[in-house]
Amino acid sequence: MFRRLYDWTLRWAGSRHAETALGVVSLVESSVFPIPADVLFIPMCLSRPERAMRYALIATVTSVLGGVLGWLIGMYAFDILARPLLEFYGKMAAFESLRSGTGDTAILLMLVTSGLSHLPPMKVVTILSGVVAFDLKLFILSAIVARGGRFFLLGWLLKHFGVKIVDFIERRFPWIALGLAVVLTAVWLVLKGL
């Protein structure tokens, strides 16, 4: 099933409706869809590098809106919508594990790492944020920073280095994202302590 979804998503990258598809996939990926927007974003940037920043903006805005949708599902419709989705994707155990040990700092760290590298999956973190009533303004700000940082950096790299950078990103991006998340969390903790 996931292979068919992946192939279907990838076909949209070459269509004349690619920007709309990118927006839709970015929106639903943050709350319900199992395929990351990168499946569209990367081929689109490689085929039209002059539009990479435009694609990054579309993906960022719609991804943040999708995150807010996930937060709303967690806050107001967990048992009706989120629980069946998490069970369908086999993410319920991961969700319960995250839920049991979360505070604001943990949620913020997960939002940043999820937004940058999909670890843990974005849909799990957005729904969890709503369930624990994480501050919506801070949620939106962190989503803008993490998702915007990811898409704009990735778009810039693809625009300037093309296919050569894809292999490097695939192998090392989670570690780079984790390092950045640790730095951002440390800055947040220092600012919170002031």
TrEMBL record:
Q: Which UniProt keywords apply?
A: Membrane, Transmembrane, Transmembrane helix
| Keyword presence, Heme | no
Q: Where are the transmembrane segments?
A: 20-43, 55-78, 131-153, 173-191
Under InterPro entries, the record lists: DedA_domain
UniProt GO cellular component terms: plasma membrane
Please give the name of this protein: Membrane protein YqaA, SNARE-associated domain
